[in-house]
């Protein structure tokens, strides 16, 4: 998945060396474990994945990751001083809390404690991270309202969009043609791309397909944390699996409606889906269940249809398919122009630089005071 962390930290390489620590992968016990697997992305981000032996409890897993991180930072790919420690999960504090960065950022893109399988210690670690952080960024309006009282420097940075990446979808099938697993599927097409997990209202997906057997429901994305057997099956529902970010415009180019069938539960209470502006950038109209941030940021502006029931989804999709593109694309483009990932990163970097400058000024003042109070040489 190429989402908020990848968009932002790929832009950070313009001014910093970026080391991205992924969550660990557990493997059968073998020689050479634990170890750090390294790869460098096309954007020049160094990605490090801890490979740990199966069977480690949480304490030993944290200790192993701390050792791997220290060895990496002490090696040729590391660096003596860390300018910014940038956190996406408070759980990472359990193996990196000993580091002393110049600036600590918590970019909170989800309420992770509400997710299935969340660690019982996550809330405590988030409180510790909030105490340590210099800046807290939130990935949506609802998250901002939930976190702003917990830290004095909390800032709203809702999902951005890479218009250039998705724009080819507006002009028919981009270079490479329509993907083989989608070619030939009948129209109209309702499409989803993204992770398929407990945040998905699978019952709604099945009910919409049942009400319109002549429509095609296309579901692109990996199935995570739920049993694949729980997916609704019908002749007009097509589960295509995960795809590369670079291939998404080829799929979107031939969708009639972008479908966002989120369940309304604790796991979706604070989400601000990145795919909403991405659908619009591709020229695909959107129908979504009433996720709070989608309603406020797009539904109230007329940039997304909001529907709760299968019948409402069908009616909303029919309205969208009957509406000429020219009637809504200019308004969508005006909105998209305000939320590019480039502009979001520039504003974030500005806040980080302010913290760094204050720290430098305070350090210089302290050194000056220490020098002036020193005893004269004899």
TrEMBL record:
Keyword list, A-Z: Isomerase
Keyword presence, Magnesium: no
Organism: Muricoccus pecuniae
PANTHER family cross-referenced by the UniProt entry: GLYCOSYLTRANSFERASE (PTHR12526:SF630)
Top-rank EC class of the record's enzyme: isomerase
GO MF annotation list: UDP-galactopyranose mutase activity
Pfam families cross-referenced by the UniProt entry: Glyco_trans_1_4
Protein name: UDP-galactopyranose mutase
Keyword Transferase: no
């Amino acid at each position: 998945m190429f989402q908020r962390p990848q968009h932002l930290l790929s832009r950070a390489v313009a001014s910093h060396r970026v080391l991205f620590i992924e969550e660990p992968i557990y493997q059968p016990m073998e020689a050479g474990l634990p170890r750090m697997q390294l790869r460098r992305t096309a954007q020049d981000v160094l990605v490090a994945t801890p490979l740990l032996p199966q069977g480690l409890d949480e304490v030993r897993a944290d200790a192993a990751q701390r050792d791997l991180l220290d060895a990496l930072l002490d090696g040729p790919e590391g660096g003596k001083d860390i300018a910014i420690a940038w956190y996406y999960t408070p759980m990472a504090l359990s193996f990196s809390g000993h580091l002393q960065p110049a600036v600590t950022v918590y970019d909170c893109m989800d309420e992770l404690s509400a997710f299935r399988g969340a660690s019982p210690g996550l809330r405590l670690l988030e409180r510790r991270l909030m105490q340590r952080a210099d800046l807290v960024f939130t990935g949506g309006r609802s998250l901002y309202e939930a976190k702003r009282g917990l830290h004095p420097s909390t800032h709203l940075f809702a999902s951005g969009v890479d218009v250039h990446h998705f724009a080819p979808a507006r002009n028919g099938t981009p270079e490479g043609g329509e993907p083989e697993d989608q070619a030939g599927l009948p129209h109209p097409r309702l499409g989803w791309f993204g992770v398929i997990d407990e945040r998905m209202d699978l019952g709604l997906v099945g009910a919409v397909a049942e009400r319109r057997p002549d429509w095609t429901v296309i579901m692109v994305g990996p199935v995570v944390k739920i049993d694949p057997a729980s997916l609704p099956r019908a002749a007009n529902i097509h589960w295509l699996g995960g795809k590369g970010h670079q291939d998404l415009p080829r799929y979107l180019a031939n969708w009639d409606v972008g479908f966002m069938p989120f369940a309304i539960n604790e796991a979706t209470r604070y989400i601000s889906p990145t795919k909403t502006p991405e659908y619009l950038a591709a020229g695909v109209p959107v129908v979504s269940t009433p996720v709070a941030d989608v309603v406020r940021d797009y539904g109230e502006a007329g940039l997304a249809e909001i529907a709760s029931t299968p019948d409402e989804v069908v009616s909303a999709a029919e309205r969208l398919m009957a509406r000429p593109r020219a009637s809504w694309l200019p308004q969508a483009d005006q909105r998209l122009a305000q939320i590019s990932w480039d502009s979001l990163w520039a504003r974030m970097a500005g806040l980080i630089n302010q913290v760094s400058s204050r720290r430098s000024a305070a350090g210089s003042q302290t050194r000056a005071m220490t020098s002036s109070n020193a005893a004269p040489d004899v």
